[in-house]
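**User:**
Make up any protein.

**Assistant:**
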Amino acid sequence: MHEFFQQHEKALILITGCLIIPALFLICLLIIGMPYTNITGLLDDPVWCMPAHILFLLMLGWLCFCLYRIGMRTVQQELVLYDLGVLALLIVIALFLPYRDTSQLISSLHIVAAYSAFIWMNILFWRYAGNERKMRNIYLLVVLFCFLHSLTYGAVTGLSEIVYGIAVSVMISLLCARG
């Protein structure tokens, strides 16, 4: 089995990051209702809460796996582990702190953790894909689209989260499979 994974490693990375994860994001988009609700609504839904948490933790594992492989080629190992530890911590905090109207403090902590994770992810992408000009340009356009879409609706929308998630999954998978 180990030989199979080594032999087909690039294909498995591309299938997972360019097909499976985008398909899961699109399923999430259909569940939450486009574009007015965001993913936090899915995490707080009593029916979808547990599957959504498991799914997003698996996606976090995939993100860390790809960023680790990319980071090992571009920066020091200790820095990569620190970077990914901070990113994983911020995302886990955002996942498990609910955004509800009943508690302003917990909702505020959720928002702070989510925005901090987004900013940290941007820093990591620029650091790890520093010499990939085309990928940086595409990433910048995706972030600009998501920002403008959220600005238009006055809130972070599910569509902007899904577009960003799919774009990041495809780009980091392509960068990961190169090495």
Notes: The radius of gyration is 16 Å. The CA atoms of residues 62 and 85 lie 14 Å apart. Helices lie at 2-7, 9-32, 39-44, 49-74, 77-96, 104-128, 133-153, 158-178. The first helix runs from residue 2 to 7.
